[in-house]
């Protein structure tokens, strides 16, 4: 493997091999820490990010790499430089891998066709966010051992979510059932072809879920009339403390961050006993170390 | 060059005159002089041995973008005409959405003058419906038509105001000219980049629902019925639109429609993974829409195959998918893709030829499109058996944006004659300027 453009096309064994490798990258694990010694990993963030960028940066540094952090703000993008020109110029400085976050779906695919080094998709538009799905699967696997027969409920704006797409592909590949839940306006057509079941009734779906993954609601979707108000969204699709009582006793709560506290997820639930949100973040470093090791 | 040319012993397919068989065609002084079942002996004629070839009326494309004036880096009237005759087209209708919009006699005259200078094929300008294609006020239809425009259209954009569209149709009845429409409700298509469906969901591309086209087709058919006029629907792409047009024709409304080779050949899956050469407007639709278009080609709901030839430069396409400009070049692949439907057994050769000749000629009331005595000597010779692979690098068009590069096609244009003059033969343009 050279690029990580998405989960699409990955077989179960390939995903499991990568997650096994990530185990070795956990604190105290057996993985070599110097495989990227003397090499450069370039973080290219055309869109804002806290978690993913710092996570990739830390992962690369822990493997011994130098990290070039490039962001679109203050770059020549505002002067009209094209994506390919920007990327080719950064490639010319000699990185072994480009970690790319971009607002356009497919941007990493375009870049991968025009560079020689590895391209790692750190989230493209509303397409995929493969490292997030891998760390989510990793987190669930550490709790459950195997995902077979488990049900993961993904709640919120599925239409615009790259996290949802990658997770549907990744979790179903590992044997889980994925149910996508949200208002009908935010459920894209063809989710079943991707492998997910679909519902618009959160309360009915909650008791069957082994984990509930809440997605960040982008507040500007309200002005596009995908839903009437965040108030009504919370009423129908927010994971409140009261709703968690409908969940299985052991069921987990996840969120890829950043959270709109009180919109899709109540603060008490985000910080409560079921929440594995900070585990997700911690596991992200190990999973990204494994990704960089495999791709570079 | 002699004034008389005899196309000898080819298979003449002339749908309007119900001819499909071996004939001799004599052209003289730029017109068809005779079509004969018996071999003709014409001492002073240049003889073209057409055995094994189809001898067809020159093709007519109701929908091309020649980009001049304004975007000559993508195409010029000269290079567009070269691509046309290489594809067997002897007449093209040039869309007005150039970078100086054709909404005045001045631009129409410039297009006609450049086309005359190119001296390759007929170029019929289309004038804008609204000034600057802004959809706000009517352009001077009378002036445009008297300068030489053959239809009016805001192609590339819809006329979003129903009231303005109604006025355009009403006003056009004074001239009995087709009003050609690009059907897209912009509030429904929004920022969409490809057709709504499983592929768009998988690729995470903003979806364009079919309703964006269908509601506008429905609206304009209602307006047509009320206002009169002639409506020509460009690049029909959805099953639902086909159904509406079929029903409107049954009721006798004066509506015509075209379909592009890319819409009746490819479905939305051609977009994966992010191939901007498969990005166009309307977008490639679902398989059931492709099937509906094919049925509509068979049953006459669609009158003409038109390419929507839309040249773009490499830099317009080598970008993020959502930034990629819409459109594909089509003049040099249209015949092969149309004949694919013949090889599949869907269309008869006569139906296929009609969709490229008689159908478009009738839809716009253009000369040509048939080979009766007195018709313009616009003749296309086709070798129906030759197999070839599309090579975009060898296009005569200035642009290379095609999703069909490398595709194997069967049937190719070998000669193109315009007004009795050879303009394309054996892969070469015959320019005489």
Describe the 3D structure:
The complex is a heterodimer of chains A (296) and B (433). With 296 residues, chain A is α/β, with parallel strands linked by helices. Chain A has helices spanning 12-24, 51-62, 83-91, 107-112, 130-144, 162-173, 191-194, 202-205, 230-237, 241-244, 267-270, 277-295, and strands at 40-45, 66-71, 97-102, 118-124, 151-155, 177-181, 197-199, 211-214, 252-254. Chain A has two domains: 12-129 and 282-295, Rossmann fold (3-Layer(aba) Sandwich); 130-280, Rossmann fold. In chain A, 37% of the residues lie in helices and 15% in strands. In chain A, the strands form two sheets. Chain A has a five-stranded parallel β-sheet with strand order 7-6-5-8-9, with helices on one face. The termini of chain A are close together. The mean pLDDT of chain A is 95. Chain B has 433 residues and is of the alpha/beta class. Chain B folds into two domains: 4-55 and 375-427, Urease, subunit C, domain 1 (Roll), CATH 2.30.40; 58-364, Alpha-Beta Barrel (TIM Barrel). In chain B, 30% of the residues lie in helices and 24% in strands. Chain B has 14 helices and 19 strands. In chain B, the strands form three sheets. In chain B, strands 1, 2, 3, 4, 5, 16, 17, 18 and 19 form a nine-stranded mixed β-sheet that branches. In chain B, helix 6 (198-203) links the parallel strand 11 (194-195) and strand 12. In chain B, helix 2 packs parallel to helix 3 and helix 4 (162-172) packs across helix 7. The longest helix of chain B is centred in the middle third of the chain and has 17 residues, at 211-227. The model of chain B has no long low-confidence stretch (mean pLDDT 97). Chains A and B meet through helix 4 and helix 7 of A and helix 6 of B.
């Amino acid at each position: 493997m050279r690029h990580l453009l998405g989960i699409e096309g990955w077989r179960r064994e390939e995903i499991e091999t990568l997650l096994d490798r990530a185990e070795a990258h956990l604190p105290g694990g057996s993985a070599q820490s110097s495989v990227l010694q003397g090499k450069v990993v370039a973080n290219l963030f055309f869109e804002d990010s806290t978690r993913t960028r710092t996570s990739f940066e830390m992962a690369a540094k822990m493997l011994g790499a130098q990290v070039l952090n490039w962001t679109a703000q203050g770059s020549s993008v505002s002067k009209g430089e094209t994506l390919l020109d920007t990327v080719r110029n950064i490639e010319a400085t000699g990185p072994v891998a480009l970690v790319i976050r971009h607002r356009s779906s497919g941007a990493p695919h375009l870049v991968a066709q025009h560079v020689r080094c590895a391209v790692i998709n750190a989230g493209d538009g509303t397409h995929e966010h493969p490292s997030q799905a891998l760390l989510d699967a990793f987190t669930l696997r550490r709790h459950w051992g195997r995902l077979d027969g488990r049900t993961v409920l993904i709640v919120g704006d599925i239409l615009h979510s790259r996290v949802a797409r990658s997770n549907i592909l990744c979790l179903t590949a590992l044997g889980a059932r994925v149910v996508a839940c949200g208002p009908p306006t935010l459920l894209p057509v063809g989710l079943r072809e991707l492998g997910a079941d679909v519902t618009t009734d959160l309360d009915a779906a909650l008791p069957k879920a082994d984990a509930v993954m809440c997605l960040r609601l982008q507040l500007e979707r309200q002005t596009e009339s995908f839903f009437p108000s965040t108030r009504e969204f919370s009423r129908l699709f927010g994971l409140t403390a009261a709703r968690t009582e409908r969940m299985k006793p052991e069921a987990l709560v996840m969120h890829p961050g950043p959270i709109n506290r009180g919109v899709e997820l109540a603060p008490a639930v985000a910080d409560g006993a079921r929440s594995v949100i900070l585990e997700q973040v911690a596991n992200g470093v190990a999973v990204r170390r494994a990704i960089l090791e495999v791709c570079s | 060059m002699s004034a008389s040319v005899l196309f000898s012993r080819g298979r003449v397919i002339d749908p309007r005159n119900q001819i499909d068989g071996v004939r001799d065609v004599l052209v003289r002084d730029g017109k068809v002089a005779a079509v004969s079942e018996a071999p003709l002996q014409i001492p002073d004629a240049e003889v073209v041995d057409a055995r094994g070839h189809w001898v067809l009326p020159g093709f007519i494309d109701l929908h091309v973008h020649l980009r001049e004036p304004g975007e000559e880096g993508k195409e010029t009237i000269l290079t567009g005409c070269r691509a046309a005759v290489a594809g067997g087209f002897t007449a093209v209708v040039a869309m007005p959405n150039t970078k100086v919009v054709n909404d005045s006699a001045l631009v129409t005259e410039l297009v006609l003058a450049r086309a005359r200078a190119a001296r390759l094929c007929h170029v019929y300008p289309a004038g804008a419906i609204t000034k600057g294609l802004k959809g706000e006020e009517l352009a001077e239809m009378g002036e445009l038509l008297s300068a030489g425009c053959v239809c009016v259209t805001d192609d590339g954009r819809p006329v979003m105001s129903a009231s303005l569209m109604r006025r355009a149709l009403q006003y056009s009845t004074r001239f009995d000219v087709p009003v050609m429409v690009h059907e897209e409700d912009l509030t429904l298509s929004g920022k969409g980049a490809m057709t709504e469906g499983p592929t768009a969901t998988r690729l995470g591309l903003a979806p364009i629902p079919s309703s964006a086209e269908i509601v506008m087709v429905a609206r304009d058919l209602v307006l047509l019925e009320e206002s009169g006029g002639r409506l020509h629907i460009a690049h029909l792409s959805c099953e639902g639109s086909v159904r509406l047009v079929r029903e409107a024709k049954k009721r006798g409304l004066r509506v015509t429609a075209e379909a592009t080779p890319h819409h009746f050949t490819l479905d939305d899956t051609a977009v994966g993974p992010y191939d901007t050469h498969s990005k166009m407007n309307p977008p490639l639709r679902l398989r059931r829409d492709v099937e509906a278009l094919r049925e509509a080609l068979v049953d006459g709901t669609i009158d003409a195959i038109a390419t929507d030839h839309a040249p773009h430069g490499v830099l317009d396409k080598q970008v993020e998918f959502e930034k990629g400009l819409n459109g594909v070049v089509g003049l040099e692949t249209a015949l092969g893709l149309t004949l694919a439907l013949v090889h599949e057994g869907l269309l008869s050769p006569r139906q296929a030829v009609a969709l490229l000749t008689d159908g478009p000629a009738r839809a716009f009331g253009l000369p040509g499109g048939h080979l009766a005595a007195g018709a313009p000597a616009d003749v296309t010779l086709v070798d129906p058996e030759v197999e070839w692979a599309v090579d975009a690098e060898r296009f005569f068009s200035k642009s290379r944006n095609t999703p069909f590069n490398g595709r194997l096609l069967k049937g190719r244009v070998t000669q193109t004659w315009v007004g009795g003059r050879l303009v394309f033969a054996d892969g070469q343009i015959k320019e005489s300027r």
